[in-house]
Structure formats: structure tokens, C-alpha cells
Amino acid sequence: MDKMENKARLLMVGTLGSGQQRLIQRMTDKGWNVSTAGTLAQAESRLVEGEHEAGIFCLHDSGISDLKRVERLVVRSDMEWMALLGEPELDDPLLCRTLGDLFMAYQPEPVDIDQIDCLMQHAVVMKRLRSEAAASVVLPRAEFGMVGTVPAMHKVFETIRRVALVDAPVFISGESGTGKELAARAIHERSPRASAPFITVNCGALPGSLIQSELFGHEKGAFTGASQQKIGQIEAAAGGTLFLDEIGDLPLELQVNLLRFLEEKTIQRIGALDEIHVDVRVLSATHIDLEKAVEKGRFREDLFHRLNVLRVNIPPLRERQEDIEILARYFFNKFIEEKSMKVRGFSLEALALMRQYHWPGNIRELINRVRRAMVMCEQRLVKPTDLGLERRASIRHAITLEEARNCADKEALIGALNRHKHKVKKAADELGVSRVTLYRLMEKHQLGRKNEQAISLSAT
Fold first, then answer.
1. How far apart are the C-alpha atoms of 360 and 365, rounded to whole Å?
2. Quick check: pTM over 0.70?
């Protein structure tokens, strides 16, 4: 190793006999900055006190007998380790398994100092390589609790910021698991009503017989079982925001009552004679196509227009292919305390299959698969089987040749624009087309600024 001004730091763990003392001296002569720890507790303290780039465990030391604690220390140190031990100890199957799982190499005594020096140099290189790679990957900041880097998600974030300031109903559309409630909460938290209540009602999770009471409340004795007065969720949200999730599941007979509230801002509890004025902003969402539900007579058109004053459309994950790896790494880091100690990241095959998978459950499914894999994985890298993704499951839904071409064109456009920081001429040169053609393609695939999703401000 070159004798540099900043020597690589090596941590040696175990009681130091004469053999280890000679090893330390010879490693110091070769340019290493060696620190020592006689026990596992001291080793943990050394790692907290300062950063080391490689480590050596004297596993034959009677003081280093707790292999589970050794495993925890090795994995959490984020560096490569080598083990020193005696030949007879290799007959212990548990120790052999520990060696294979945790250590980059082992050396039986008497040791070969040149080989140890060479192995530790490789360990330092790997540690520095991982550190540089980690530094070069900047995980996106979660905006509104959502992560997204593609233009479609930037439009969502911008729309949320704009509609939050307008005190009018907002309709949030998107498939199940895309984050509609996160969007609703973000709108509330950035609105003038942020200090008031945010109340969520899942219209699809309540029995039809209870929805009216849940929304509007009831008086004592209004019906069998009404032993006391109940304040409805609309009234509970007074001054704040009411989020009606899965509004498409609201029965037709109750849609009339909700429409009346939106028009007059008054409610009447079940069994009450007086009307109550309630100042509340209504946000709604559903995973179904409400326009089609209106056409089929399952949802009132007048109520739809009352709810759909402002609109936020959240794209499904399959249309955000560039975000899949970013989201997977984001949730890996978010739930890192839950993971198996061995797991350090995703295999290339797992990342490739995640990009190919259709994600019918969207972000919710991605979170569940990543968390499960982090717990169940027994290797350093998460494999497709840990995620429950096999090649046959990753095959996309059948598409036409034209759809495949459009998808390929869009991915090529996004890649070129990102590489050149949206400088159109450079992106056009890379793709071998004119700027006019590139603008036309951007218009077609809704990638240009001029095509940002408009906010509907239709009259009520």
C-alpha cells in the first residue's frame, strides 16, 4: 500500500497476544493505521467514535464467542472484514457458516502477512467504491410524502401546490395504491385550513346502512340502537377538510344528500329538525372512472360536476418506469431498521424485473414487496424471488405494435432529455432528429412544458 498522508484505518478485534502484536506492528510498517478492540463492546465503541475502512476479527479468541453479536457488528459497520482463526476451528459448522455469510476472507494461523495486506487493500478499495457510489446517488426528497422524478409527477406536485390555495372542491383520480390520500393530505396541509381538522371517510368501507349516520350524524333515539347523539364526519371536519375516499362507491340515495350539502353548506342529522351550517372543504377520490359511471347512471352527473371543480390526476406506477428503481431504494432506506442484517441492496436482476413488472397495486404493492423482501432475504442482495417476482410474472400485458413503438419512443425521449438537462438541441442531435421533430414528439407524448396538465376551474 502506498504510504499516503491519510493512512487507511484498520480495526483489529480480539485479545492481543504476542502473535497479534507482531501482526499489528507489521501492518503498521506497511502503512496501516491500526486501532484495536479487546472485546465486542470496545469494537462497537471504536466504530461509533471514528470511521474505519477494513477490519480483522480474531475469532479463535474466547472473548469473541457471541456469533450473533459478531454478525450484528459486521453487517452494521458497512465495511469488509477478514477472520483469523485456527485450523481445528474450521470443523465447527456454525462458525463456517458465519465465515461464508459475513467475511470476505479468513486466514488460519500462522498468518501470511503479505496476503493479509493484499486482502485488506482490496477491502479498502471496495469500501471506498461503495462510499463513492452512495455519494453519487442522490435519493429524491419526498415531496408531500410522495416521490417522483418524471414529468408527470412534477405536474402532480405543481397542481397540488396551486389547488391548495383555492378553497374549492378537488377531485383526485388515480388507481388504487397510487397515493390519492397522500395528495389529499398535502392539499389540506398547504391550504389556509391546515390548522383545522382533516377527516377521512372511506365510502367503500362502510355498510350502506351506516354511511348516512357516519357522514351526517344522528340524534339520540333516531333509530334502534341510537342511544346517544352522534356528530357526523362532515360536522367533525368543520373549519377544515373532509376527504371522501372511494366516492364512486357512495349509494345513489346518499348522493342526493351530499349534493344538497355541497350546494347549501348545511346538514341535518338523522332524527333532527334543525339544519346546521358547516364550513368545510370537500376533497374526493376514487379508483373508478366516474365519467363512465355517470354515463351508466351509477353516479349523479350534477354531483360529479360539484366535486370535480379542481382536479388532480395521479399516474399509475407502470407509467412511471423511471421512478421504480428510485422508489424501491427510497423505501429500502425508509424501512432500513426492519431489514435482515445481511441485506445491503437490490440485485441487478431484481431491479430489472421491477422495471418490467406491471404493478397492478401501484406504490402500495411496491412498498409491501420491498418490505417483505428486506425481512425475508437471506443474502446480501435482494433477488426477484425475495420480492415474489418471477420472470413469468413480470411479463407485461399484451400490447399492440403501435403501443410498443410509442412506449419505446417515449422512453428514448425521456432518456435523451434527462441526459442533456432538457436542452432540446442536444437531445435532438443525440436522437438524430431535427428540433422540429423533437418538439412534435414531445407534444405527442406530453413531455413539453406547454402540455402541463391544466387545472379545471369550471363554474359551480
1. 8
2. no
